[in-house]
Amino acid sequence: MMSITSIKMLILILVTCLLISALSGCQTTPQTTELASIPTETSIPPSVTPLPKIISTNTLIPPTPTEVPTETSIPLTPTITALPEQRVTSVDQLIGVWKGKWDTNYLEQYKSDGEAVLIFEQYRETAEKELFTFEDGLLKWGEIAFTIGEPQECLDDPVASYEVYITDQGDQPVSLRWVLVGEEHCQPRYKFLTLFPYT
Q1: pLDDT for 70-94, tens place per residue?
Q2: Which residue in 22, 63, 153, 184 could disulfide with 160, CB within 3.0 to 4.6 Å?
Q3: How far apart are the C-alpha atoms of 165 and 196, rounded to whole Å?
Protein backbone atom coordinates (compact mmCIF):
# COMPACT_ATOMS: atom_id res chain seq x y z
CA MET A 1 0.00 0.00 0.00
CA MET A 2 1.02 3.50 -0.51
CA SER A 3 1.95 5.67 2.31
CA ILE A 4 0.43 9.03 2.95
CA THR A 5 3.66 10.67 1.98
CA SER A 6 3.62 8.93 -1.39
CA ILE A 7 0.07 10.04 -1.99
CA LYS A 8 0.93 13.64 -1.13
CA MET A 9 3.87 13.44 -3.48
CA LEU A 10 1.69 12.17 -6.27
CA ILE A 11 -0.87 14.94 -5.73
CA LEU A 12 1.91 17.54 -5.74
CA ILE A 13 3.22 16.23 -9.05
CA LEU A 14 -0.26 16.32 -10.62
CA VAL A 15 -0.91 19.88 -9.42
CA THR A 16 2.45 20.97 -10.76
CA CYS A 17 1.70 19.43 -14.17
CA LEU A 18 -1.61 21.18 -14.28
CA LEU A 19 -0.03 24.53 -13.43
CA ILE A 20 2.64 24.12 -16.08
CA SER A 21 0.12 23.24 -18.75
CA ALA A 22 -2.08 26.20 -17.79
CA LEU A 23 0.82 28.62 -17.76
CA SER A 24 2.09 27.52 -21.13
CA GLY A 25 -1.07 29.06 -22.74
CA CYS A 26 -0.19 32.46 -21.20
CA GLN A 27 3.23 32.92 -22.80
CA THR A 28 4.01 36.41 -24.08
CA THR A 29 6.61 35.36 -26.63
CA PRO A 30 5.87 32.65 -29.09
CA GLN A 31 7.95 29.56 -29.00
CA THR A 32 9.47 28.43 -32.22
CA THR A 33 9.24 24.84 -33.06
CA GLU A 34 10.43 23.28 -36.21
CA LEU A 35 7.65 21.56 -38.03
CA ALA A 36 7.90 19.36 -41.03
CA SER A 37 7.39 21.32 -44.18
CA ILE A 38 3.77 22.43 -44.23
CA PRO A 39 2.53 23.84 -47.50
CA THR A 40 1.64 27.48 -47.17
CA GLU A 41 -1.04 29.31 -49.12
CA THR A 42 0.11 31.35 -52.04
CA SER A 43 -1.25 34.82 -51.82
CA ILE A 44 -2.82 36.26 -54.97
CA PRO A 45 -2.27 39.93 -55.35
CA PRO A 46 -5.61 41.74 -55.52
CA SER A 47 -6.53 43.16 -58.88
CA VAL A 48 -7.27 46.81 -58.79
CA THR A 49 -9.96 48.14 -61.07
CA PRO A 50 -9.56 51.84 -61.49
CA LEU A 51 -12.64 53.86 -60.54
CA PRO A 52 -14.04 56.18 -63.15
CA LYS A 53 -13.30 59.80 -62.62
CA ILE A 54 -16.26 61.52 -60.99
CA ILE A 55 -16.97 65.00 -62.16
CA SER A 56 -19.10 67.07 -59.86
CA THR A 57 -21.72 69.21 -61.55
CA ASN A 58 -24.50 71.28 -60.17
CA THR A 59 -26.84 70.33 -63.02
CA LEU A 60 -29.73 68.11 -62.13
CA ILE A 61 -30.08 65.19 -64.48
CA PRO A 62 -33.71 64.18 -64.90
CA PRO A 63 -34.45 60.54 -64.22
CA THR A 64 -34.82 58.25 -67.19
CA PRO A 65 -38.51 57.63 -67.75
CA THR A 66 -39.62 54.08 -67.11
CA GLU A 67 -41.73 52.56 -69.84
CA VAL A 68 -45.12 51.55 -68.57
CA PRO A 69 -46.58 48.67 -70.54
CA THR A 70 -49.79 49.60 -72.26
CA GLU A 71 -52.74 47.30 -72.59
CA THR A 72 -52.37 45.12 -75.61
CA SER A 73 -55.63 44.76 -77.38
CA ILE A 74 -56.42 41.18 -78.19
CA PRO A 75 -58.32 40.89 -81.42
CA LEU A 76 -61.72 39.39 -80.85
CA THR A 77 -62.65 36.28 -82.72
CA PRO A 78 -65.35 37.29 -85.12
CA THR A 79 -68.74 35.97 -84.18
CA ILE A 80 -70.37 34.34 -87.13
CA THR A 81 -74.01 35.22 -86.96
CA ALA A 82 -76.67 33.39 -88.83
CA LEU A 83 -77.76 35.11 -92.00
CA PRO A 84 -81.43 35.75 -92.58
CA GLU A 85 -83.12 32.69 -93.97
CA GLN A 86 -83.44 32.44 -97.72
CA ARG A 87 -85.93 30.57 -99.76
CA VAL A 88 -84.65 27.37 -101.38
CA THR A 89 -85.36 27.46 -105.09
CA SER A 90 -83.36 24.51 -106.41
CA VAL A 91 -82.34 21.04 -105.36
CA ASP A 92 -78.68 22.16 -105.29
CA GLN A 93 -79.35 24.24 -102.16
CA LEU A 94 -80.89 21.25 -100.39
CA ILE A 95 -78.44 18.46 -101.28
CA GLY A 96 -76.88 16.82 -98.23
CA VAL A 97 -77.81 15.10 -95.00
CA TRP A 98 -79.99 16.95 -92.51
CA LYS A 99 -80.65 15.92 -88.94
CA GLY A 100 -84.08 16.09 -87.32
CA LYS A 101 -85.81 14.83 -84.19
CA TRP A 102 -89.24 13.41 -83.68
CA ASP A 103 -89.66 10.45 -81.34
CA THR A 104 -86.05 9.59 -82.17
CA ASN A 105 -83.22 11.26 -84.06
CA TYR A 106 -83.38 10.81 -87.78
CA LEU A 107 -81.39 11.81 -90.81
CA GLU A 108 -82.88 12.90 -94.10
CA GLN A 109 -80.65 12.82 -97.15
CA TYR A 110 -81.62 14.89 -100.16
CA LYS A 111 -80.00 13.71 -103.38
CA SER A 112 -79.49 15.57 -106.64
CA ASP A 113 -81.62 13.04 -108.50
CA GLY A 114 -84.74 14.12 -106.53
CA GLU A 115 -84.79 11.32 -103.98
CA ALA A 116 -85.15 11.92 -100.23
CA VAL A 117 -84.07 9.08 -97.93
CA LEU A 118 -85.22 9.02 -94.31
CA ILE A 119 -82.95 7.07 -91.92
CA PHE A 120 -83.52 6.46 -88.22
CA GLU A 121 -80.15 7.33 -86.72
CA GLN A 122 -80.30 4.92 -83.77
CA TYR A 123 -80.95 1.86 -85.91
CA ARG A 124 -79.19 3.04 -89.10
CA GLU A 125 -82.25 1.76 -90.90
CA THR A 126 -83.87 3.31 -93.96
CA ALA A 127 -87.46 4.14 -93.07
CA GLU A 128 -88.61 5.78 -96.26
CA LYS A 129 -87.69 6.96 -99.75
CA GLU A 130 -89.70 9.68 -101.46
CA LEU A 131 -89.32 11.44 -104.78
CA PHE A 132 -89.49 15.23 -105.08
CA THR A 133 -89.03 18.02 -107.62
CA PHE A 134 -88.68 21.80 -107.54
CA GLU A 135 -91.32 23.70 -109.53
CA ASP A 136 -92.00 27.42 -109.34
CA GLY A 137 -89.89 27.75 -106.19
CA LEU A 138 -91.77 24.98 -104.39
CA LEU A 139 -90.60 21.54 -103.34
CA LYS A 140 -93.24 19.10 -104.55
CA TRP A 141 -93.44 15.67 -103.01
CA GLY A 142 -94.45 12.95 -105.43
CA GLU A 143 -94.34 9.22 -105.16
CA ILE A 144 -93.33 7.38 -101.99
CA ALA A 145 -90.90 4.80 -103.38
CA PHE A 146 -90.36 2.85 -100.15
CA THR A 147 -91.73 2.96 -96.62
CA ILE A 148 -91.71 0.79 -93.51
CA GLY A 149 -94.84 2.22 -91.97
CA GLU A 150 -96.53 5.19 -93.61
CA PRO A 151 -100.30 5.19 -93.18
CA GLN A 152 -102.43 4.36 -96.20
CA GLU A 153 -103.48 8.01 -96.78
CA CYS A 154 -99.80 8.85 -97.42
CA LEU A 155 -99.55 6.08 -100.02
CA ASP A 156 -102.89 6.95 -101.63
CA ASP A 157 -102.19 10.70 -102.03
CA PRO A 158 -98.49 11.53 -101.46
CA VAL A 159 -98.49 14.78 -103.46
CA ALA A 160 -97.91 18.00 -101.48
CA SER A 161 -96.06 21.30 -101.98
CA TYR A 162 -93.84 23.17 -99.52
CA GLU A 163 -91.83 26.35 -99.44
CA VAL A 164 -88.41 25.55 -97.95
CA TYR A 165 -86.28 28.14 -96.17
CA ILE A 166 -82.59 27.67 -95.39
CA THR A 167 -80.47 29.53 -92.83
CA ASP A 168 -76.70 29.76 -93.32
CA GLN A 169 -74.03 30.60 -90.78
CA GLY A 170 -70.90 31.75 -92.53
CA ASP A 171 -70.73 29.53 -95.59
CA GLN A 172 -72.46 26.55 -93.91
CA PRO A 173 -76.16 25.76 -93.98
CA VAL A 174 -77.45 25.29 -90.42
CA SER A 175 -81.21 24.81 -90.55
CA LEU A 176 -84.26 24.22 -92.74
CA ARG A 177 -87.81 25.44 -92.22
CA TRP A 178 -90.82 24.09 -94.10
CA VAL A 179 -94.09 25.90 -94.90
CA LEU A 180 -97.01 23.95 -96.36
CA VAL A 181 -98.57 25.46 -99.47
CA GLY A 182 -101.97 23.93 -100.22
CA GLU A 183 -103.11 20.60 -98.83
CA GLU A 184 -101.26 17.73 -97.20
CA HIS A 185 -102.94 14.35 -96.85
CA CYS A 186 -99.90 12.72 -95.15
CA GLN A 187 -100.03 14.04 -91.59
CA PRO A 188 -96.89 12.22 -90.37
CA ARG A 189 -94.85 13.92 -93.11
CA TYR A 190 -96.38 17.30 -92.22
CA LYS A 191 -95.36 16.83 -88.56
CA PHE A 192 -91.89 15.67 -89.57
CA LEU A 193 -91.32 18.73 -91.70
CA THR A 194 -93.01 21.53 -89.79
CA LEU A 195 -92.92 20.71 -86.09
CA PHE A 196 -89.32 19.63 -85.66
CA PRO A 197 -86.38 21.64 -86.96
CA TYR A 198 -83.85 20.21 -89.35
CA THR A 199 -80.23 21.06 -88.60
Answers
A1: 666 666 666 667 678 899 988 999 9
A2: 184
A3: 14
